[in-house]
Amino acid sequence: MMMAQRLYEAGHITYMRTDSTNLSQDALNMVRGYISDKFGKKYLPDSANQYASKENSQEAHEAIRPSDVNVLAETLKDMEADAQKLYQLIWRQFVACQMTPAQYDSTTLTVAAGDFKLKARGRTLRFDGWTKVMPALRKGDEDRTLPLVKQGDRLSLVELTPAQHFTKPPARFSEASLVKELEKRGIGRPSTYASIISTIQDRGYVRVENRRFYAEKMGEIVTDRLEENFRDLMNYDFTAQMEDRLDQVANHQAEWKEVLNHFFGDFTTQLATAEKDPEEGGMQPNPMVLTSIDCPTCGRKMGIRTASTGVFLGCSGYALPPKERCKTTINLVPENEVLNVLEGDDAETNALRAKRRCQKCGTAMDSYLIDPKRKLHVCGNNPTCDGYEIEEGEFRIKGYDGPVVECEKCGSEMHLKMGRFGKYMACTNDECKNTRKILRNGEVAPPKEDPVPLPELPCEKSDAYFVLRDGAAGVFLAANTFPKSRETRAPLVEELYRFRDRLPEKLRYLADAPQQDPEGNKTLVRFSRKTKQQYVASEKEGKATGWSAFFIDGKWTEAKK
C-alpha cells in the first residue's frame, strides 16, 4: 500500500483505496485505442468488457489503473524498483481486462484399463488474446500436447509411475493470504487491510518469520479475554455485518442513529460486565506468576509477565510505592533461539521430542533462556496456570557464527545478546554500553556514526532542532528530542555542504554532491534499498523530478533518464 501511495502521489495511478471494478469512459477509450494501435484489431473486443463488482463494494472511485496507459514501468526512473513492479502489475491488469479472450484447443483422452478408467487432459494455445500482456498462471502439465489416437486403439503400457500423496495441514497465513481471508469474510476494506496487518504486529499479537504469521503469547491472552467478555465483537461475522449496516446508512436504507443505538446498547452492557470482578463475570486479569528467582537488584522474587514485546521476568517490587519500587526486568530468549551446548548438533531435534508438560495441568510448556546457565519452562496456559520449572545446564543463543567482533569504541569483544526487540551484539566491557544490530542476512551491522547536532536547523513541528543520523536506510535529519518529537526528513545537499566540517569523513562525499539539478531544483540525499547506496535526487514542490546522480568511482555522475 505504501508503494501504491507513492505511485498515486506521483500521478502515475488513480486512487488506490477502492474495491471498485468500474472504469470511466475516458479510461476505456484510452485503453481500447492503445490495444488497437499496439496489438491490432483482433485483440480488441467489439465493445468494452464490463465486470461485476463485489456486493457492497465502495465505488466512489474508479478501479485502480494507470493514469496514462502509454507510460510503461521501465520509464518510471524516479520510482523504487518495488514501485515499478507494482505499476507493471497494475498496467498489465488494466490492459488485459479490455482485450479479447485467449483461445485453446482442449483434448481429453479416456483409457480403459481393466476395471479402471484413466483420463489425460491437454490443451494447446490457438490464440493468445489477453495473455499477450499478462501471461496466465498454468498448472504443471496443463498445456501439454496429447498423442493422436483413434477410438478403439489399443495402447501399450510404457511406464507405471507410483505416486504417494499426503494431506497437509493448512499453511500459516502470509500477508497476501491473510488479505484474501479478510476479503472472503467481508472484514475490512482495501483502505484498511494494511493498517490491520501492521497493527497486529505493532501490538505484539503476531510475529513474522519467513513471511508467515505466528501467534504470540500476548495475542493469545488478548483474544481469550475478549472472547470471554465480548463474544459478539469477536465473532468473524460482526465486522462484515457492521460493514453492511454502514453501507445501508450510506445508501439511505437505514438511520445512522438507530444503527449506533443498537450497537452501543449491547456494547455498554458487555463493557459494564467486563469491568466487574472476575468472580462476578468480569474480565480475567493478567497476573504476574511469582518464581523462586531472586531479583538481582533488590533481592525480591521475580515474576513471569507477558507484554507486547513478549514474555519476560519482572521484579515483584514494581507494584510498591514509588520510593520502594523496583523496575528491574530480565529478558527471556525463546527456546527456538537457544542451543544446548552439551547436546551438540541434535539439540533442536531433542528439544522437539522432549517438550515438557506442566505438572499442574498437563499443558505443553514454553521454554526460555534466562542466562547461559538456566532455562525457564513456563506453562503454555500461563497466566491462568502458574506452573513453571527451572532447568540448569549450558546454553547459548543461536544466530551469529561469524568472526569475533571488536568493539569500535573500546576494543573489547562483543557477544551476541537477545533483547526485547531481537538479537544484537553487546560489548563485554561493563563500562562500555556500545551495541550493534544483527542484520536480516545474519551479519553484524557496521558501526553507527554518532549523531551530528545541527542547532542551526530548527524543526518545523516543535521547538527542537535537527541532528544528522546515519541509519540502516542512510542519513536523515531527526529531532534532537526524539522520541518526544518524531519529526524527520531527508537532508538537502546544500545543508550538508554548509556543515561539511562537522560531518564524519565517510559522509563528506555527500556534501560534495550537486546542490541543484540543471533546472535549478534543489537536491536531497536519498537511499536505494536495491543497491544499498545513497544518491541525490531533485524535487519540485515536494514531488520527484526524475533527475538523480550517483557517486561512482570517486565522483558524482548524473543518471541517464
Can you put this structure into words, describing what you see?
- There is one protein chain.
- With 561 residues, this protein is of the alpha+beta class.
- The protein has four domains: 2-96, Topoisomerase I, domain 4 (Orthogonal Bundle), CATH 1.10.290; 175-280, Topoisomerase I, domain 2, CATH 1.10.460.10; 289-397, no CATH class; 452-558, Single Sheet (N-terminal domain of TfIIb).
- It is built from twelve helices and 26 strands.
- The protein has a four-stranded antiparallel sheet with strand order 5-6-7-8, with no helix packed on it. A four-stranded antiparallel sheet has the order 9-11-12-13, with no helix packed on it.
- Helix 1 (2-9) packs across helix 3.
- The longest helix has 19 residues, at 256-274.
- Keywords: DNA-binding, Isomerase, Metal-binding, Topoisomerase.
- Residues 1-271 form the Topo IA-type catalytic domain.
- One of its GO terms (molecular function) is DNA topoisomerase type I (single strand cut, ATP-independent) activity.
- InterPro entries: TOP1_Znf, Topo_IA, Topo_IA_AS, Topo_IA_cen, Topo_IA_cen_sub1, Topo_IA_cen_sub3, Topo_IA_core_domain, Topo_IA_DNA-bd_dom.
- This is Omega-protein.
